[in-house]
């Protein structure tokens, strides 16, 4: 064969990234799950476990067979958009991108009636597989955008698996979306228990790990007004939790301005370097949290 094209790599710092589709099962019901694992350039198994972040987005399904479908391909070229968590591969952090977080409602059950236990089960299955492979140890973080940010806050509230969380443009109090959200068609008054159970705002007292909240100051998505992050931050701060809120000026639900995208990446990078990367936690859950919360900026504008 003869090479006929000579294109340079658009992101040379990502040369050598390893990409693998991993498959595993949810322990409680054996549901098949999968996710795309990215390992940083130069990583070798002899190094042992490295810091890892899960970046995900839950989805609802009416049956287990649909929930188990595999998405994505390990053979696609690794191209990293500006707001992608894959940026942190160059910092030596492994990324499990889009691990399946299916919320299943079968036989007449509503998916969200068991949202929290299913979510926790999916996340813990993913982390167990990463540890089985020797990729990860206790240095595992979780993050997401929009419903993924909502997911990250819920996992910090209901699981001890993660050391740190990042929530971008999320909705944390479902009482502020009373006429439904995502695939939830019931109103708050029809399913109050589900709305309350799913709201990390209502469980802020259970969060013991550092949480970074980022939000576009002009977010006009009806389910994720900036007030969601502002009120959640105030709740966490009032409870003495370790948290930080960053508001990006003039940004809507997705971030577009170069200055804001770079600022967002810098904030997450600093958060992970402080709370995820160190081989030992800087403090036990809850220790030192009051100082951090009171010292955090309510808005870190560019």
Tell me what you see in this structure.
The protein is α/β, with parallel strands linked by helices. The protein is 26% helix and 18% strand. The protein has an 8-stranded mixed sheet, with helices on both faces. Strands 4-6 form a two-stranded parallel ribbon.
Structure, briefly:
This protein has helices at 64-67, 115-132, 147-158, 192-198, 227-238, 258-275, 289-295; strands spanning 18-25, 32-39, 52-55, 59-61, 94-97, 102-104, 140-145, 164-168, 211-216, 243-248.
Q: Helix content range of the residues, please?
A: 25-40%
Distance between the termini: 51 Å
Number of helices: 7
Detail the poorly predicted runs: 282-302
Strand content: 15-25%
Structural class of the secondary elements?
alpha/beta
The SSE order reads EEEEHEEHEHEHEHEHH
Instruction: Average the pLDDT over all residues and give the rounded result.
Output: 91
Strands ordered across the widest β-sheet = 1-2-5-3-7-8-9-10
The 3D shape can be described as: globular
Number of separate strands: 10
The oligomerization state is: single chain
Using the CA coordinates, give the radius of gyration: 19 Å
Main sheet properties: 8 strands, mixed
Features of this protein?
single chain, 302 residues, alpha/beta, eight-stranded mixed sheet, two-stranded parallel ribbon, 26% helix, globular
What's the arrangement of secondary structure elements?
Elements: E1 18-25, E2 32-39, E3 52-55, E4 59-61, H1 64-67, E5 94-97, E6 102-104, H2 115-132, E7 140-145, H3 147-158, E8 164-168, H4 192-198, E9 211-216, H5 227-238, E10 243-248, H6 258-275, H7 289-295
Parallel strand pairs: 3-5, 3-7, 4-6, 7-8, 8-9, 9-10
Antiparallel strand pairs: 1-2, 2-5
């Amino acid at each position: 064969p003869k090479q006929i094209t000579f294109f340079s790599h658009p992101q040379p710092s990502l040369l050598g990234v390893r990409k693998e589709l991993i498959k595993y099962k949810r322990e409680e019901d054996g549901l098949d799950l999968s996710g795309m694992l990215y390992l940083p350039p130069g990583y070798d198994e002899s190094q042992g476990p490295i810091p890892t972040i899960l970046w995900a987005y839950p989805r609802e399904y009416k049956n287990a067979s649909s929930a188990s479908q595999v998405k994505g391909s390990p053979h696609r070229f690794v191209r990293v958009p500006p707001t992608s968590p894959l940026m942190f591969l160059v910092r030596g952090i492994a990324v499990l991108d889009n691990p399946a977080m299916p919320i299943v409602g079968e036989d007449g059950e509503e998916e969200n009636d068991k949202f929290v236990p299913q979510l926790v089960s999916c996340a813990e299955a993913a982390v167990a597989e990463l540890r089985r492979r020797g990729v990860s140890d206790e240095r595992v973080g979780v993050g997401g955008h929009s419903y993924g940010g909502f997911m990250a806050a819920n996992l910090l509230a209901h699981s001890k698996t993660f050391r740190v969380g990042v929530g971008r443009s999320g909705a944390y109090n479902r009482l502020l979306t009373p006429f439904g959200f995502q695939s939830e068609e019931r109103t708050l008054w029809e399913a109050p228990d589900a709305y309350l159970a799913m709201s990390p705002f209502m469980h802020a007292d259970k969060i013991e790990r550092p949480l970074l909240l980022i939000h576009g100051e002009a977010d006009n998505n009806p389910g994720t007004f900036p007030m969601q992050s502002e009120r959640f931050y105030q709740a966490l701060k009032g409870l003495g939790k370790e948290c930080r809120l960053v508001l990006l000026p003039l940004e809507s639900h997705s971030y577009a301005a170069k200055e804001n995208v770079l600022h967002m990446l810098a904030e997450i990078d600093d958060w992970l370097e402080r709370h995820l990367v160190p081989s030992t936690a800087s403090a036990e859950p809850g220790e030192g949290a009051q100082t951090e919360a009171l010292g955090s900026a309510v808005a870190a504008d560019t």
